[in-house]
Amino acid sequence: MSISVQNLTKTYGNQQAIDQLTFEIGKGQVVGFLGPNGAGKSTTMKILTCFMPQTEGTAQVAGFDTLTQSIEVRREIGYLPEHNPLYLDMYVKEYLAFIADIFKVKNKQKRIATCIDMTGLGLEQRKKIGQLSKGYRQRVGLAQALIHNPSVLILDEPTSGLDPNQVAEIRNLIKTLGSEKTVMLSTHQLTEVEAICDRAIIINHGKIVADKPTLELKNNADENSIIDVVFSAEIAKNLIEKLPGVLSVEGTNNTFSITAKKDANIQAAVWDLAVKNNLSIVSLGQRTSSLEAIFKTLTSDANNS
Amino acid sequence: MLTILKKEFRSFLSLFIAYVVMIVFLLTVGLMSWVFSDTSILEGGYANMDILFNIAPWIFIFLVSAITMRSFSEEKKVGTLETITTKPLSDMSVILGKYFACLLLVLITLLPTLFYYYTVYNLGSPVGNIDSGAVIGSYIGLIFLAAIYVAIGIFSSSLTDNQIVAFIISMFLCFFFYAAFDMLRNLNILRGSQFGIDWIGISYHYRNISFGRVDTRDIVYFISMISLFIFSTKLVFGSRKW
Known about the structure:
The complex is a heterodimer.
Chain A: E1 3-12, E2 15-25, E3 30-34, H1 41-48, E4 56-61, E5 64-65, H2 70-76, E6 77-80, H3 92-102, H4 108-118, H5 134-146, E7 152-156, H6 164-178, E8 182-187, H7 190-196, E9 199-204, E10 207-213, H8 214-221, E11 224-231, H9 237-241, E12 246-252, E13 255-261, H10 266-276, E14 281-286, H11 290-304
Parallel strand pairs in A: 3-8, 3-9, 6-7, 7-8
Antiparallel strand pairs in A: 1-2, 1-4, 4-5, 9-10, 11-13, 11-14, 12-13
Helix pairs in contact in A: 4-5, 8-11
Chain B: H1 2-14, H2 17-35, H3 41-44, H4 50-68, H5 70-78, H6 80-85, H7 91-110, H8 114-123, H9 132-159, H10 163-185, H11 202-210, H12 216-238
């Protein structure tokens, strides 16, 4: 197992950041760590990278314990922290050389060149980090995490704040890396998990609410369908809720989004309802991003309980 | 440790901290030693370098605090502390790397004042009429003094993520340990006590050693003070894990 976490708990004062997390990540897996803000994603990653210790439980990376074999763990990990902190007054190459020196990388110059190439930093490699745009800084952060060719990559929100093209490039890079390394990345974008991860771990309020291969999660999600409907005039919400197969309704006045069982044929039912009430339907659309739905239900259910 | 030292020292150069520190120190000391008639060696009539060794501890209070203030505060503020502490480096090697980088800068700043010795040596009548033992002792004293200041500065910087707060704490602690115990001794209630309280202060030992008398008691004192602040820094730095 590349990453193995047992009953991991972290409390800040009275606040429970993560609560009895248990999961294992095998070699070569790309795992998406999903959850709303404040769910405990970064906390878990900070414990795994030995930035801070857990309150209870154990965490192991590549067979080394994060508390007792911290230096060995840190040698195995490539870590991109959440806000990608960098020394802005250093040059790109100077910074990478500094990190390479810490890891005592052999063939330093060659390895730096490879990492610059991999992350697409070629054009900017002679600049100071402070002069780079956010997207390029993110690449420097990634290059820094890759410099010693680690077996485990831990990336905390690697694509946040990037433009769509950059997001696509970084995702491709992670995907390539994932073929030979264990990658754990956190995100709150579901499309990212769909695009690059083999498996998703969804956490909320410090607890795991789902831990499944992405495909399976998606199939589950497909059991329900969500439609957005706009009526020509106001209609009572409870009339919609009474339709067969409806699970939940959101919205007011004449605009609703309805979650219903897939086999309930909800579109026809809504249509009938409109006719019955002498209304017409202005627009009716089915949402495609189904993983989003399951994320929403998983994380909001836990909210209510 | 060497990796950190190298990186820290390069950042002194690239941020112009090193040049500013050297210019300010040499300008002040140079003017006081040779130009201003109140303190000038030329006007004084004696072939000694006392003026340098008297004012350097005071200038160092500012300069060393300025050099060291960013070492940990900046990393805390920007978040690069997370980058460093998740790399395979022990806490002590990070602290010592930063410590020696700052100390190195101070020593390099001090280096050009060796010319003063050469000058005074040749101006003496007859030539060479200077108490070389005292000068060597004073330099050793000054180096130890700077080493304590740097340890105090690094410690202050580890306490806060605000550079200005670090600067002020460091200046206060340097001043306190350099001079405050001398002043305390002169308080009426403490006067006449057998064991002088000034023994705790740096200036007592600095004075001792600058007579050219390198006493093991003073050396032990200097090394203990440096270790005290280095280990306090380690304690504070490690407290992120509490």
